[in-house]
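User: For my dataset I need records formatted as: sequence, then structure tokens, nothing else. Please produce one.
Assistant:
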Amino acid sequence: MSQKLRVGITIGLHQVDETLWNNGIKQNGVFLAETLRHCPNVESVVLVNTTGVPITDALPWDQTRWPVVSFDDAKDKLDVLIELGGQTDPARTEYLKARGTRLVSYCCGFEYIHAAEAMLFGKNMWDGNLFVNLRYDALWFIPQVAGNTQSYLEVMRRLPGQVVPFVWSPVFLEARSQSFPDGGQYRPRQGPRRLTVMEPNINIVKFCLYPILIAELVYRERPADIELLQVANTLPLAQTNRDFIALMNHLDIVRAGKALFTGRHDTPTFLATNTDVVLSHQLENPLNYFYLEVCWQGYPLVHNATLCDDLGYYYAGNDAGAGARRLNEVIDHHDANAVSYRDRQRALIQRYLPDNKDVVSTYSALLENLMKAPVR
């Protein structure tokens, strides 16, 4: 292809200094931008803010490397707009289509699950004003959401989709960790282990209960080896949810005062200052940034994420006993192999990096095929 493409990726800023650690969507946009910068058929990539929040130097990334512009400033300078973190409304869609811009929906959320929960539990997700855009030229799904969301959106948007490579970079993790000893990387520590659970607990996709049960089984067997179980993002549950409180009070690790239920923390800080082992569990979320952040820094991750089962200490399904066996393995053997473990994790994670040749060539081909097809 002779044409060099000007690509925009949408984000939706809510604050001028919005943190990168409240969810993965901003990081996703930046990592995709970094990937596309390596594509030989791409001339430029900008992040396009779809909200009215002003763009200032307060944003937590290098805007010379990953420039951010408003939609109005970008709309006449794009060959492709990838809708990732902010939706393109009907008027903007019509404008882009009139000038021949290709519009891609980059699906990186569990839209089926969000929609189902909204309808079942009265979350009022759309407030009666649902807009289903039928003008996309392509639907791209990252692998971990394809299983539950791809078919749902294909039907609603009347267009077949494609699964595309997941991308991640340690650039923000390392920047946030540079002030910590050893760059925030895991180092062996004498004494009983501090266990950490950092699931967001906003739905059952990433919920803390099974990791707590894993910790409970190990604590029953060897209480002297557990210093503390720290469960982030649970403060409201532990303060006001009577069912959660009742259930927790049946556990030995809670009754012994060895469990701490806390609020929100950014991952790099909590790893570097509070953590020896991370326990995790997922349903329909078999790959995400959190797993890669933990493993890149060399922390033992006990998890059941099937798309990265070669990372960390994997257990299958919902088997708390298997998770407990992996946690015992970590306690008994991890520190003797901590450096080789970290190096192996980083070698495996290379497959997700923005400069990985296979990743770059796949996105180059996706863009080439996109431009060959007629505009919808």
